[in-house]
């Protein structure tokens, strides 16, 4: 009996060593790919620890600098950092990783971003792609009125008051408030939108609810099973206060759009996104899901994507410009060419510059473009999974299915061959006369992703950013 026990134990130990060390480290097709760390070939501990520390982006970039355009981050995870790799992964039909489902569903209901499979994602995207197209954004009278109202009556008066009084202001909080007001006005109509620029108490409460959860998102997106196990034994890794904050945050937004979340009610005037989504859901309903929460889940995702990212970019742009008075002077001279001009204070009869006229401001566009390059608001990996049929990626054959693989704008935008002196903020790099050089920079520019799953609101995002920079 003892001999049988010893033999069985030895066999199990051998199988475990083979399965978890020998095969992934030496025999797996991924073993040929350079590893970011010696642990990466047989354990995800290294990359998980970096994510938990908040050092994922810098660590992956350093690994690419050392190992090349394809790097192994874990026994079943790769990172790619080249144009060719982007085409293979993001235009080659690789589906989204479950990371999106864990981290982006609201109210427990999937939305366009959290949908993993391409077909249901395409159905949802078709519902709303028209309202986020460049032609719609530029021709929208509603969006022009939103811009005029928020810039003229809220944003510029605050900036003028601060400048006149010689006081200080939290520019991140201010630009985030501007972005939420602008975004929710397009989603729900101006009458139903937030007024964070003027309602300081509501603004700070909402921002607290959103931001206090971020340090704990690692557990739900990367190790949800382990997080639940700790909770079951009375050692929660996510405090109850954070769960309460999530519930309050979601309920706040549900209340905000309550008048626009039942198809039987009159749709608020100017609620562009809601109108399109409501029409689309009549064709592609979500059986068994409350209709108000289906719509709220989608709209909340758009609001989050709009307000946080925009605030980050505007803050960095303001900081960089504050150190370059000559560039600020050149920007002001360029803005004087607008017709109609933007001035403050604005008279009631003054028209707001058209999106097309703002688009023609080359220096302003270069400032926005360079800020998005150096300080991408979503700099981290956008994970996909390899298809069941073995793939070839950057010359490495027989990559098996269900391998997590990703690229990140943080690493792509620091390619020194494409962007000389990549750590420096240089808007002039986008104004060079050599068209081939500039086109190459645009090809590697990845702030909004690429392929069929790239950010649907990229044109709307650029409109918000350029309008706010214009005002500043």
Order of helices and strands: HHHEEHEHHHHHHHHHHHHHHEEEEHHH
User: What spatial order of strands do you see in the largest sheet?
Assistant: 1-2-7-4-3
User: In this structure, how is the largest beta sheet organized?
Assistant: 5 strands, mixed
Q: Can you give the helix content as a percent range?
A: 55-70%
Structural class label: mainly alpha
**Cα distance spanning the termini:** 81 Å
What's the average pLDDT?
89
Number of strands: 7
Q: Indicate the proportion of strand residues.
A: under 5%
Unreliable stretches, pLDDT < 50, 5 or more residues?
261-265
> Based on CA inertia axes, which overall geometry fits?
globular
Helical region count? 21
Using only C-alpha atoms, the radius of gyration works out to 25 Å
Characterize the structure shown:
By secondary structure, the protein is mainly α. It contains 21 helices and seven strands. It has helices at residues 2-27, 45-53, 56-67, 83-90, 98-104, 118-128, 134-139, 141-165, 171-188, 200-211, 217-222, 224-232, 240-256, 272-283, 291-322, 325-335, 355-359, 362-374, 409-412, 435-444, 458-471; strands at residues 70-74, 77-80, 95-96, 384-385, 391-393, 396-399, 404-406. A five-stranded mixed beta sheet has the order 1-2-7-4-3. A two-stranded antiparallel sheet has the order 5-6. Helix 6 (118-128) packs across helix 14 (272-283), helix 8 (141-165) packs antiparallel against helix 9 (171-188) and helix 15 packs across helix 21 (458-471). The N and C termini lie far apart (81 Å). The relative contact order is 0.14.
